[in-house]
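In the design runs reported in the main text, the only information available to the sequence generator was the tokenized backbone. The following block is the verbatim input for one such run; it is reproduced so that readers can re-run the procedure and compare outputs position by position.
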């Protein structure tokens, strides 16, 4: 199995601030890759580069490449709308639209011209492990769901676009432990069909869910490898200091 995505000597500046320094990282297909490191080290910046979400931010300059199925997404011929359909994103704070549960999931496919969305909505909610909890109240407002349900709804909304990569930026930070473990179980189930990348400041979570872990510090990627190796036998002193809680 190959790499779904690869970043190659990726650099990013916010104005004068150099936020990503020469990041070269492979993201293998059908695996979960975790990004860890102290606050402000560039995890969100990096994950946003993977579907060009940073394009939306003022004064950003990017050098280097991000390959998706071997194609540089920063090349001029990239269709960014299509790219973001293929590479979905789930954020820290659940952000359902102020509309019904059904319409939240149907929204994306509809604006992209899909006519009958019933079965797609049902399948997406099933795949997001939410169907059983909401199938009898699809017309109810999404805002009435619990935080954990809202986050699974956001995952269903991403799945309805038929992506093949899903990016999660601290998806459980606002959730209780039970909701967190549901999301982690869900990620495990999604592995067979999707490539996933998760930013987490929770090292236990990285150790539980991911196959590979990258440790970031001050805009640099210090170490990257199989999660077990990173946690049990880190090669860099700074990785060891971080995972053993000596700083960060
Ligand atoms: N929109 C922005 N404008 C300017 N600086 C930013 C912006 N977003 C993030 N930064 C800076 O870039 C660095 C990395 O931030 P971020 O990627 O959010 O880190 P993390 O997700 O690891 O906490 C930080 O120093 C942060 O202050
Ligand atoms: Mg962040």
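Verbatim output:
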């Amino acid at each position: 199995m190959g790499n779904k995505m690869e970043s190659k000597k990726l650099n990013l500046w916010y104005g004068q601030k150099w936020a990503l320094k020469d990041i070269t990282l492979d993201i293998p297909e059908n695996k979960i890759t975790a990004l860890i490191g102290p606050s402000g080290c560039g995890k969100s910046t990096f994950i946003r580069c993977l579907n060009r979400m940073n394009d939306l931010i003022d004064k950003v300059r990017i050098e280097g490449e991000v390959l998706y199925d071997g194609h540089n997404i920063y090349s001029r011929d990239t269709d960014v709308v299509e790219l973001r359909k293929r590479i979905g994103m789930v954020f820290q704070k659940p952000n359902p639209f102020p509309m019904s549960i059904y319409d939240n999931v149907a929204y994306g496919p509809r604006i992209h011209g899909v006519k009958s969305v019933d079965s797609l909505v049902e399948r997406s909610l099933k795949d997001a492990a939410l169907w059983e909890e909401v199938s009898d109240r699809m017309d109810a407002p999404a805002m009435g769901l619990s935080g954990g349900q809202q986050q699974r709804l956001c995952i269903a909304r991403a799945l309805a676009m038929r992506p093949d990569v899903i990016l999660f930026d601290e998806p459980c930070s606002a959730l209780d432990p039970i909701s967190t473990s549901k999301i982690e179980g869900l990620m495990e189930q999604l592995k067979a069909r999707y490539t996933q990348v998760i930013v987490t400041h929770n090292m236990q979570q990285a150790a539980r869910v991911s196959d590979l872990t990258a440790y970031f510090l001050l805009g640099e990627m210090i170490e990257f490898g199989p999660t077990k190796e990173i946690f049990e036998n880190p090669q860099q002193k700074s990785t060891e200091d971080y995972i053993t809680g000596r700083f960060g």
